[in-house]
Fold this protein.
Amino acid sequence: MALSKQFLKVRPVCKVRFSLTPEECGDAAAVFLVGDFNGWDPEKTPMRRMKNGKFTADLELVPGESYQFRYLTDDGRWLNDAAADAYEFCEFAQAENCILQV
């Protein structure tokens, strides 16, 4: 799991790349990025599968904000990102969400 942040000079956004290795995804054929930035809708941000088996997604987010997120595999498993800036317990899900601070 990895997160990379790139603050753009020409626009007030931060380009964030979310990525998962094949080992982290197991046998998943598809992985979805879900969180505050897409209303927790798994349909809105499917991750791309690369030739090496890694799944990635790029988002442009507002600097100075915090976002909660998780990964959802097509077999129904929820995954957290070990590279998250923090974690927060979610009563609704009864699990910890990842926190991304941009």
Notes: The domain at 2-101 is CATH 2.60.40.10 (Immunoglobulin-like).
